[in-house]
């Protein structure tokens, strides 16, 4: 049974400080583990005794690698390695959600211009072109015509990261000027917010959207929990569209969710919910 927590991080932001304070209030001891500053032994000579790892790295590469690593070494990790891998990869995540019966946008995996053209014929324009790996709304394009498609495809071809070239052609959802972020901790969904952007169709708060408290109705709660369970994540931020005709549609599952704006506009202490969940996990 684990008795303390190791918080894997690459920066100590508002969220990490809030989690640290919440763990202090719960009487849980913890250490801060920054892989940029601390080497991690792979040979088994150095062991973390009775430790549960909480993944909070803002580096997607380090988050994935360390979650997989500690998982494979037999430690308890939140979130575990394979669910982190699936949730970080939009292609894998959407396929997993769809198989589980969770409503998602119609999407195609594409690689290069030829497959993108065929996907465009099946989706109709406008549609969304984005890399399978990415965050904060970066490298996402709205394709309105074949010239847009050619330009964006050529841009993706010259990217140095081969994983970025594996992309998505995705149905453009008529969601108005907002989407929804729901935070899931364990078996419960909390504190939905609208992310509103009246100036741009991308609604990530990193792109300037405004956070506004929303209502957690039963349908929204149910689809959020189902999405997290389908991927296998214990703590997550679920990004959801409201289609004007089809209702709630899950777009992404984020395995290291930010929640500063969530707590600010809803008043829900997400850090305490995470700490209380960790207390329960330590007792298993």
Short description:
With 284 residues, the chain is of the alpha+beta class.
Within the largest sheet, what's the order of strands? Answer: 11-10-9-12-13
Gross geometry? globular
CATH C-level class of the largest domain: Alpha Beta
CATH topology of the largest domain: D-amino Acid Aminotransferase, Chain A, domain 1
Instruction: Report strand %.
Output: 25-35%
Overall mean pLDDT score?
Answer: 91
Domains (count): 3
| Model regions low in confidence, pLDDT < 50 over at least 5 residues | none
Helix count, DSSP H or I runs of 4 or more residues? 10
The description of the largest β-sheet is: 5 strands, antiparallel
| Portion in helices | 25-40%
Q: Which second-level CATH architecture of the largest domain applies?
A: 2-Layer Sandwich
CATH fourth-tier homologous superfamily of the largest domain: ATP-grasp fold, B domain
The radius of gyration is 19 Å
Distance between the termini: 6 Å
Task: Summarize this structure as a short list of keywords or feature phrases.
284 residues, alpha+beta, Rossmann fold, D-amino Acid Aminotransferase, Chain A, domain 1, Dna Ligase, domain 1, 3 domains, 5-stranded antiparallel sheet, 4-stranded parallel sheet, 10 helices, 37% helix, 26% strand
């Amino acid at each position: 049974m684990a008795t303390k927590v190791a918080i894997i991080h690459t920066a100590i932001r508002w969220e990490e400080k809030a989690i640290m304070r919440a763990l202090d209030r719960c009487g849980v001891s913890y250490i801060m583990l920054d892989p940029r500053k601390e080497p991690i032994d792979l040979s088994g000579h150095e062991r973390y005794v009775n430790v549960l790892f909480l993944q909070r790295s803002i580096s997607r590469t380090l988050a994935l690698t360390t979650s997989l690593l500690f998982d494979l070494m037999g430690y308890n990790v939140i979130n575990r390695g394979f669910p982190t891998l699936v949730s970080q990869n939009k292609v894998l995540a959407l396929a997993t959600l769809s198989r589980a019966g969770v409503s998602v946008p119609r999407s195609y995996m594409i690689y290069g211009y030829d497959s993108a053209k065929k996907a465009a014929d099946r989706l109709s324009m406008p549609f969304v072109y984005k890399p399978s790996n990415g965050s904060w709304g970066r490298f996402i394009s709205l394709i309105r015509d074949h010239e847009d498609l050619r330009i964006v495809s050529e841009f993706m071809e010259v990217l140095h990261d081969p994983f970025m070239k594996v992309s998505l052609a995705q149905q453009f959802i008529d969601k108005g000027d907002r989407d929804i972020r729901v935070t899931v901790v364990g078996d419960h969904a909390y504190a939905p917010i609208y992310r509103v952007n009246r100036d741009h169709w991308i609604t990530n708060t990193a792109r300037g959207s405004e956070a506004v408290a929303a209502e957690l109705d039963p349908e929204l709660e149910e689809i959020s929990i189902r999405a997290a369970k389908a991927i296998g994540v214990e703590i997550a931020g679920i990004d959801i569209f409201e289609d004007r005709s089809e209702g709630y549609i899950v777009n992404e599952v984020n395995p290291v969710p930010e929640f500063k704006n969530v707590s600010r506009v809803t008043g829900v202490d997400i850090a305490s919910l995470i700490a209380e969940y960790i207390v329960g996990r330590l007792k298993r």
